[in-house]
Amino acid sequence: MSHQNHTPQEFVTELRGLSELNWRDVLYYYTQQPELDAWYAQFNWERTSPEGAFRVRTATGGELALTVTSGKPLSGNWFNIREVDYRVWGVEAGTAEDNPAVMERAAQVWPAYLAAARSLLGEPTWEGRWDSENFPDRPRGSILTDPMIRLEERDPYRMAYWLPESGIGPFVIMRATLAVGTAHDVWGGGANLSMTFRSPPMDRGSAAGPVDDRHPGTSFFTAAWTDWAEQTSEDGAYLARTQLGIRISTSDWGRKTATVYLNRLTYNRTGGVPRLESPRFFQGQAGGWHEKAEVVRASGEVVGRVHFHSPGQAHKDIIRFSGAMELDDGDYIVRVPEGARTTWTIEGKPTVYVTVPLPQHEIAFTIEGSAPASARPAPKPPVYVDPDDDPYQPSLW
């Protein structure tokens, strides 16, 4: 889908229309068929993609991508919109040598668009660079960035966000993002500037503080990544670039867990020039359960195997698989075993199933001070709540 850059003046016009929407109606439920076009029409939006792709054009020409909670119906034909993304401006690098100029251009245009946003939204709750010490990766528990990817890829390159004054307003995020590899002159990259509208986050702590809602009481203290490596399919038509990562966390009772990650970029090499492909999901899967790693002691003894969850987290064009394992103290190596491979699906007629061998990535690491598994606290007994004693609590809306 091609995009047209908007000037700061055009951006103000588009943003004014978006800010005046009734976001209670947007960030709620709708039916896919046959009422979808009618649902779009109430916001003066026109569908620009086939059913299920959720892309629209506004009355003033802005192109919006709607992200749903799930690709499957939650109940009947009902879906839930998680966020609305408005792509404002972008530039691509012809070659890797052009990447520094792309980043410089993104830094140059940021102040003008930020000033335009301020004119309508007021002062942002936070604004800064990718390397700011107080960068809010998870403001009020709402996950915006992964700190490892942010520091490795300098992405988002710039960011500002506005928290709503009341619970019914949208959570607005403005980002200048970099394509994977742009910060490292690996290949020709690019930069985009976009505005994202989300449901307001719950107030779970400091607006700029790191909060991990998935694992309360858990602290993260170390992380490492391998370099990117690539492999091609047997017929040479497809290419996968991957890297292995590990993060060590400590639970609130002292047990340490190694979370292993596999980042993947996929390319089509038809015509001799690799073209980056967006993440592909088939029947809810980003891979074929062939993606795995193993953890071994320094002596070579296999401690356990990690079968990565699928689908993984999508960070723009990256698919991230992950899996976790609790460990005792000792020296370890996490590695991709010989013969492991990654798979993905290309939609079409016929459907193409791609398989590419995985490079044998490995990372050495040490676990110190891990509480024994026997120290795990006993689970708390369930507490029965009589539905008649639990009055209905209205939502934020």
How would you characterize the overall build of this protein?
The protein has about 400 residues and is mainly β. The protein has five helices and 22 strands. The strands form four sheets. Strands 1, 2, 3, 4, 5, 6, 7, 8 and 9 form a nine-stranded antiparallel beta sheet that branches. A hairpin with a 6-residue loop joins β13 (about 255-270) and β14. The radius of gyration is 23 Å and the shape is globular. The two termini are about 35 Å apart.
Put the structure in a nutshell:
The protein has 397 residues and is mainly beta. It has helices spanning 8-19, 23-26, 36-41, 99-121, 147-153, and strands at 29-31, 46-47, 55-57, 63-68, 78-92, 126-129, 158-162, 171-178, 190-198, 219-225, 229-232, 238-250, 256-268, 275-277, 292-297, 302-307, 313-315, 318-327, 330-335, 341-346, 352-357, 362-367.
What's the overall average pLDDT, rounded? 79
Order of helices and strands: HHEHEEEEHEHEEEEEEEEEEEEEEEE
How large is the radius of gyration?
Answer: 23 Å
Helical amount: 10-25%
So how many helices? 5
Question: What's the count of strands?
Answer: 22
What amount of the residues lies in strands? 35-45%
Stretches where pLDDT is under 50 for at least 5 consecutive residues are: 70-76, 202-221, 390-397
How far from one another are the termini?
A: 33 Å
Sheet of most strands: 9 strands, antiparallel
* Overall shape: globular
Which class do the helix and strand fractions yield? Answer: mainly beta
